[in-house]
Each structure stands twice: as structure tokens, then as C-alpha cells.
Write a structure and sequence with these properties.
Radius of gyration: 28 Å
Number of helices: 11
Largest sheet: 6 strands, mixed
Strand content: 25-35%
Number of strands: 20
Strand order of the largest sheet: 16-15-17-20-19-18
Structural class: alpha+beta
Shape: elongated
CATH superfamily of the largest domain: MoaB/Mog-like domain
């Protein structure tokens, strides 16, 4: 720190907060640590009784906290994100659109392993709305050695921004409601309204729908017809257990779809089936989707809506955090369910 005359402080950085007291009006920090003094500030500072100031004078190889935060932002910010101006060495990133937020967790860990800096984010694979906070970053001290930011950049390595936001691109769905009891009208279909509401959260509309009962051939033909018609997603409801009269898994296989998984380490949702038919995802939903607030479908649907491939390895990883606690009042997605460590 250097002690300088207030009149000579223009362009220098304050090393501590400067409190302004006007009885009955204000008692607060008028200028905060890290503020760069301007010519307009001088009369205010003098009126506060500050004839001398402790300032940091920039030296080669050292960065102001705001400059350090900008370096971190450049490492993190991907497309479809907006950044706040640096304030007291901190920058926040927000979503510019609805979409799926993803974090390169290993590279983020490498970044946060460096001293005197930090980046905090939402969990990876979080569905977000436009305007939502995604991440915040800052350097810890008022000034930081530039070589520490260079080391952070080296630790992160190539590969583009650490954070990404993927807009939802799938817009149409073919819905196949199985079950002879539904087809015959013996019971009211309670499954499709739930599925339609979940799809609508991500801008997906059901444009084709049928009730083929438990006829495996009819289910298979509906899958093929919907894929040929160009829907973005095919969803089959029910008929997913191992009972002999549950035909959905066999019907999906008969369509020629590549099975990514039949079964997932998530409860509710262990009997979930995900497959791919010439680039069109085909899902088989177990009955729990109809009555449980949060299931495997809620974890996978945002990824499908964003047009991202979902691999068996990724589904295996869902086992960590994939146990719904069945809370009396469900607060999903503000809960641990499906969160990846």
C-alpha cells in the first residue's frame, strides 16, 4: 500500500472501504475496497475528511481483482450466457435462454485447486430458465499475481469454456399410451396428462398420439410411423415391467431401435427404457412416472430436450444421488435427487 494525497489519487485503487456519514441520511461505504479513484471522486472524498488515501499502485505482473475476475470469466463463460460487470472482484453469469446447464466438472475442479481464486456453479445437467444465475467467480485478494491466472488457465487446458448452456431444440413428441384397460375405456387415461405436462416444461408438444392397447405389433408400428413422420421424440407409457402381458420393451426392440438401457439405477424409475431409432429417442416409461413427483424421466428429459446424446455410462452415474427420499412435500428440483457429485 502507498499513502498518497487525495488530489493525487486519480487512477489508483483503494485498499479499503471508505465510509461516508451524513447524520440522519447515510452511514455506509461510499467507496469500496478495489474502487478506482476518478476525478469526480476527489471532492466527495475531501468532504468526507479524507486528505490522504491508502492505495494500491499497479505494478507489472500484478492484476486488480476485477481484472482477475475477467480472466476467470473468459475461462468459464459459454454461449447463451450473460455476464455482470465486475463488482468488488466478482462476476456472475446468467442464462440468456431456457436450456440445460452443463459443467465440465473435472476442469472446474482443476481451476478451483489453484490458490487465491474461486468459481462456484450450479450442479451440472441442471435445467434452467432465462435469467437464472449459473455461476459466480472472483479472485480472493484485492490484487493477484498474473502468473496465478496463467497457472489456472494451464490447469484448465484446452477444450473451450468450462460452462455450457444448451437451448432446448426438440419440440414435438409422438405419445403411445399402452394398456388394454385404457384402450377399452375401462379406466381413464391418467398417464398422458402427466407426461404432456412434463414435456411442456421444455417446450415439447404432443403432435401424434394413439392407444394401441397391449398389442405388441401395433405398438411397434406406431413407433415406426411416428419416427417416419419426423417427430423429435417418441414416448411409450406403461407396460414396462417383466410381467408376460407387459409388451412395451419387446415392441421397442422390434422397431429396430438401439437399446441404450433397459433399467436404470434410479428410484423411482428402475424399469425405464431409453433407445435410439435412427436419431429419434424412444422412451419406455414405467408406471411410477404417472404418480411420483420426480423420477428418472425428470432427470433424462431435459437432456433429450436439449438434443444431447444420453449414454449408458451417464445413466449409470445417476445412481449416485438417484434415490428419491420421498419427502412429504416434494421440492424437486431443489433437492439432492439426481445431483451428480
Amino acid at each position: 500500500m502507498n499513502l498518497v494525497r487525495t488530489q493525487d489519487a486519480v487512477g489508483h485503487v483503494l485498499c479499503h472501504d471508505m465510509t461516508q456519514i451524513i447524520p440522519g441520511v447515510i452511514k455506509d461505504a461510499r467507496f469500496r475496497k478495489g474502487h478506482v479513484v476518478t476525478a469526480q471522486d476527489i471532492p466527495v472524498l475531501l468532504s468526507m475528511g479524507k486528505e490522504h488515501l491508502y492505495v494500491w499502485e499497479k505494478t507489472p505482473g500484478m492484476l486488480h481483482e476485477d481484472e482477475g475476475a475477467e480472466r476467470l470469466r473468459a475461462l468459464c463463460q459459454g454461449e447463451h450466457m450473460t455476464a455482470t460487470p465486475p463488482k468488488e472482484g466478482k462476476i456472475e453469469l446468467r442464462a440468456a435462454c431456457d436450456g440445460l446447464f452443463r459443467v465440465d466438472v473435472n476442469r472446474l475442479r482443476a481451476l478451483n485447486s489453484q490458490e487465491e481464486l474461486m468459481v462456484a456453479t450450479r450442479h451440472t445437467n441442471a435445467p434452467v430458465k432465462a435469467g437464472d444465475r449459473l455461476a459466480a467467480m472472483r479472485v480472493i485478494p484485492l490484487i493477484i499475481a498474473e502468473d496465478k491466472l496463467d497457472a489456472a488457465q494451464a490447469a484448465v487446458g484446452p477444450g473451450g469454456p468450462i460452462l455450457s448452456l444448451h437451448p432446448y431444440v426438440r419440440k414435438t413428441c409422438g405419445l403411445i399410451v399402452t394398456g388394454s384397460e385404457v384402450r377399452s375405456g375401462l379406466i381413464r387415461d391418467q398417464f398422458s396428462p402427466v407426461v404432456k405436462a412434463k414435456l411442456a416444461q421444455y417446450g415439447i408438444s404432443v403432435t401424434m398420439e394413439c392407444t394401441p392397447g397391449d398389442d405388441r405389433q401395433a405398438i411397434t408400428q406406431a413407433i415406426l410411423d411416428y419416427q417416419a413422420a419426423g417427430v423429435d421424440l417418441v414416448v411409450c407409457t406403461g407396460g414396462m415391467s417383466v410381467d408376460p402381458d407387459d409388451r412395451t420393451p419387446g415392441a421397442i426392440r422390434a422397431s429396430g431401435a438401439d437399446i441404450i438401457t433397459y433399467g436404470a439405477p434410479v428410484l423411482p424409475g428402475a424399469m425405464f427404457l431409453l433407445s435410439d431409432l435412427k436419431g429419434t429417442p424412444v422412451c419406455g416409461l414405467p408406471g411410477c412416472v404417472m404418480y411420483a413427483k420426480a423420477t428418472i424421466f425428470d432427470l433424462v428429459l431435459p437432456r433429450l430436450a436439449a438434443g444431447l446424446p444420453v449414454t449408458r455410462a451417464e445413466l449409470v452415474e445417476l445412481g449416485h444421488g438417484g434415490l428419491c427420499l420421498g419427502c412429504g412435500e416434494c421440492r424437486y428440483p431443489v433437492c439432492p435427487f439426481g445431483k451428480e457429485g
